[in-house]
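Is this the right way to post structure tokens for a design question? Let me know if I should format differently. Anyway, here goes:
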């Protein structure tokens, strides 16, 4: 675990010195094809709800990445991840259950990872930072519980700023900024999360990023048995 943390910190430090963009990014510039996913969000939601019928069989995040147990399992509540694509590797059995997502991903090679994220009632993911600034996080809300006033009951806090994303809404952001999530409801929150290849990186940083992506794919092939949903 200490070795993983040191490696992540070293990689993050390189990107922090070379890339200077805010936490929230303009999807029209950085991910124009976001509009295609937004247009299809109801069909994507139907597929996610069908997957949710087998929720106990879907891995928890710390089952997939034991290095992240402190983030995923600290409160004993589930954060389950149905992986359809990971660092460029397509999980065909899972994509077969989600043809709308599969078709969109086939037309969107810059979306290098895609998962349905299922956040249990009362779940809190403590503040943390992602490791890899070469990708951006696209967050499309599919099923959002509401509070007594009708407002979204799940809060995503990024770099100290709270965001409450309603169903059919989205956000493009840099997950190397500190962020945390809390589901203050008695229902599961469901979102589609995409990792999107960052545009406009310096050439040497882009080259390093491709090398890191290749290493991640090798690592995932080695651990691939864990990723079935």
């Amino acid at each position: 675990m200490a070795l993983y943390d040191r490696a992540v910190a070293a990689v993050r430090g390189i990107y922090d010195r070379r890339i200077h963009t805010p936490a929230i990014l303009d999807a029209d510039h950085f991910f124009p094809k976001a509009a295609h996913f937004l247009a299809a969000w109801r069909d994507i939601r139907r597929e996610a709800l069908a997957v949710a019928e087998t929720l106990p069989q879907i891995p928890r995040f710390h089952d997939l990445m034991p290095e992240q147990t402190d983030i995923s399992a600290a409160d004993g509540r589930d954060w389950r991840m149905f992986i359809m694509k990971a660092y460029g590797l397509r999980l065909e059995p899972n994509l077969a259950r989600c043809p709308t997502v599969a078709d969109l991903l086939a037309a969107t090679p810059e979306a290098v990872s895609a998962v349905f994220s299922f956040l249990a009632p009362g779940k809190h993911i403590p503040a943390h930072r992602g490791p890899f600034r070469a990708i951006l996080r696209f967050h499309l809300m599919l099923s959002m519980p509401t509070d007594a006033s009708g407002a979204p009951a799940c809060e995503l806090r990024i770099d100290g700023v709270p965001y409450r994303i309603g169903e059919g809404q989205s956000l493009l952001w840099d997950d190397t900024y500190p962020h945390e999530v809390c589901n203050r409801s008695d229902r599961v929150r469901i979102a589609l999360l995409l990792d999107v290849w960052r545009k406009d990186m310096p050439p040497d940083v882009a080259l390093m990023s491709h090398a890191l992506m290749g290493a991640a794919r090798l690592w995932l092939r080695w651990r691939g048995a864990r990723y079935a949903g």
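Format looks fine. Someone answered above. Worth noting: The radius of gyration is 17 Å. The chain has one domain: 2-227.
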